[in-house]
Every structure is written in structure tokens, then in C-alpha cells.
Amino acid sequence: MNVIKDTFFDGERPCFAAHDTRFEHVKFYPGESAVKHSQNVEAFQCEFLSKYVFWHNENVVVDDCLFTPYGRTAIWYSKNVKVLNTQVDAPKMFRECDNIFVENVKFADAQETGWNCRDIELRNVEAKKGDYFFMNARNATVENLNLQGNYSFQDAKNVVIRNSHLDSKDAFWGSENVTVYDSVIDGEFMGWHSKNLRLVNCTIRGTQALCYCKDLVLENCIMEGTDLSFEYSTVNADIISDVISVKNPAGGRIHAKAIGEIVIDEHCINPGECEITVG
Questions:
Q1: What is the pLDDT of residues 137-180, one digit of tens each?
Q2: Could you tell me if 54 and 80 are in contact, meaning their C-beta atoms sit under 8 angstroms apart?
Q3: Distance of alpha carbon 231 from its chain centroid, rounded?
Q4: What is the helix (H) or strand (E) element at residue 29, kind and residue range?
Q5: Distance of CA 181 to CAs 155, 200, 277, Å?
Q6: Which of 113, 148, 187, 222 has CB atoms 3.0–4.6 Å from 241's, for a disulfide?
Q7: Distance CA 214, CA 264 (A)
Q8: 77: domain range?
Q9: Number of domains in the chain
Q10: Does 246 fall in a domain?
Q11: Which of 257, 258, 243, 241 is nearest to 210 (CA)?
């Protein structure tokens, strides 16, 4: 592998179509598309101040690097990408990528990161300002994600999340086949219009949670500050805490330690089709 080290590049496309190349201690100063259309490239302890760095690439490893706020929109339309031990201060990090592995990475500005990506693995990731984090994701496994940002995993499909904390209003809207284990989801209006959303040993916080869901499952979950929950949802829920209120569920069963108020009004579409028990 060709090694380029202890230097800098700037301007447009300085390393266009590189292949079998390792960059070590290289600074990419302002410019565009520095390593575009490349194959089999590695970056170790590099600093990126240029945007659109790794577009249309295949087989990329980024380790112990820094993407400054100027290094936005860094990895798009690429395949087989590993990002390890890296600080990302720029938004829109991934889009339209296949086979992404991200481990020990901190995103200081994760807005619009991960859109329309497929076959994703995230481990030990911290993401701030993460609005629309991994929207339209397909086939993702997530372990130990600490996310602050709304509308996360919107319209995502086939996602498994474990041991994570999502501070995220409107998480999982329109999602399908999502399972979350041993996690905290803190944010109002979560899960609306989802299909096959399953929450296991989770803590759920926020108003009007889990409405308009189809085939929703809760196992051994805690609900805190959750009022007007489950409206128009079909649900199978075992909740080990109190629930402030439940409103007009469409069908299934809900069992909770206690429910402060059950609202079944003239707008209920299937009166009596949901079994609600406490104790």
C-alpha cells in the first residue's frame, strides 16, 4: 500500500481516484472532494477541513481522525466504510452508503447524519445535535448509542438497538421492524405510525407516546410522564410502572401497574377491542 504522510493538501480533488493508499498525519485544508472516487484507502490521524472528502469510494478505513466543522458532508455514496476512534464536528457525515461500521466515535453536530444508508453497525457512539439521525436507515444494529437530537430513525427499517439512551422527540416515526432492548427513550410523540416496534426492558418518557402504531409490543417496560398514550394503536403491552393516561387504543391488550385515566371517547374506532388491566 502506498503511504502518504506528514504533509497537507488543499483545493479541489487533490487525491482524486487514489487507490491502495494510506494517509498518515495528513491535513486536508479547505477545498472539495479530496479523495473522491477512490478505492482501498486508509486515513490515520488525519485532519479534514475540506468538504465532500470521501464520495463514491469503496473500502475506506478512517481511524483516530478529526473532521472539523468545515469537513461537512464527508462520506456519501460509498461502500464498505469503517470509522473508528474519531471526532466528527461536522454535520451530514454519511448518506447513501452501504456497509458502514462506526465504533468509538463522537459526533458534535450529527444533524442529518446517516440518511438512506444500508447495512449499518454503530458501537459506542455519542451524537449531539442529531436531528434526523439515520433517517431511512435499513438493516442497522446499534450498541451503546447516546443520542441527543429529534426525529431519529424516522422511516427506518430492520433496526436493533441495545443499551442506548435516545433523547429524541418523534423517535421511530414511520419505522418498521425496530426492536429496542435495555434502553431509555426520552422524548414526546415517540413511535407514531410505526409497524412492528418492539420495546424490551425500556424506559419510555414523554407525552403522547406510541400512537397510531401497528403491532406494537412492550415487554417489561417503564413509562414515565406518559399521558394520552396508545391512541389508535394495536398493542401488546406489559408495563411495570404507572401510566398517567391511555387514550382510545385500537386493539390488543395493555397491562400496567396502574393507569391514572383511561379515555375512551366518541372518537374511539374500536371500542372494547383493547383489553386494559392493572395491578
A1: 999 999 999 999 999 999 999 999 999 999 999 999 999 999 99
A2: no
A3: 25
A4: strand 27-32
A5: 19, 5, 24
A6: 222
A7: 19
A8: 1-88
A9: 1
A10: no
A11: 243
